[in-house]
Amino acid sequence: MKKGVSLSSPFLKRITLLSEKVDRGLFPFNRFPNLLDDEFSLDFPTPVTFFTGENGTGKSTVLEAIAKLCGFHLGGGGSDHQLHETSDQSESVLADFLRPSWLPKVSKGFFFRSDTFSDVARYLDDEGNSAGGRLHEQSHGESLLSLFAYHFGTSERCIYLLDEPENALSPTRQMSFLRLLRDWEDSCNAQMIVATHSPIIMSYPGATILSFDGESVEPIEYKETEHYRITKAFLGNPERYLAELFEDEPESY
Ligand SMILES: Nc1ncnc2c1ncn2[C@@H]1O[C@H](COP(=O)(O)OP(=O)(O)OP(=O)(O)O)[C@@H](O)[C@H]1O
Ligand SMILES: [Mg+2]
Description:
By secondary structure, this protein is of the alpha/beta class.
């Protein structure tokens, strides 16, 4: 089939809160009353979107809700996998109050969460799906990159939701991951929404970066992110930061 412009990634264009139906006594509305206010909506104008922000600001909560909207198992894994119930039994209440805008609706893909990666890797090994080698016979970082490189296809439209893919990846492997992002984007068949703390990963050109650090989720430029600024400042003068951190004199380092 020819690639029609309007049917290329991104497929999920927007999510909007159905605010009139929300029970504000429930998590996550009681935890994030400002973020998830009556106006809450997120736009995904580009094939790659990053969620960035401090720990506990709601990135995984929103990503999990999107996973449910896609019909993915909330414990993580691929849309084709018949996973047993994993250790994570959580339900996404938020998803029940979100309206997704798709063009077209996509239900293929993968929800990667680093905390259940081991269960998913065991499932793929047990299935005999050994593209790229058995995942459990590789190091943590190697198996992660094998999963992304060999188990994520682009032959049909798919959406990849990745929660902290940098987990266990060396800086060099994080750059290999950027190369994979480019291949997926070039296929026009893949949309990626990635929660990350990695300043290397969020440097990917042309991505939308959404910051969860303010009262509402807002687009932010790469070099304006806390992660970029703090990492750059720290690496530029680690002695000064360490001295401040340990209330010591810079000369002693
Ligand atoms: N089911 C729940 N009930 C109550 N609180 C919860 C529940 N799930 C998560 N939380 C809390 O909501 C907050 C947001 O969690 P979330 O995992 O979305 O943050 P995050 O932005 O992904 O953080 P991190 O960068 O550390 O992964 C956390 O403080 C967490 O303890
Ligand atoms: Mg998280």
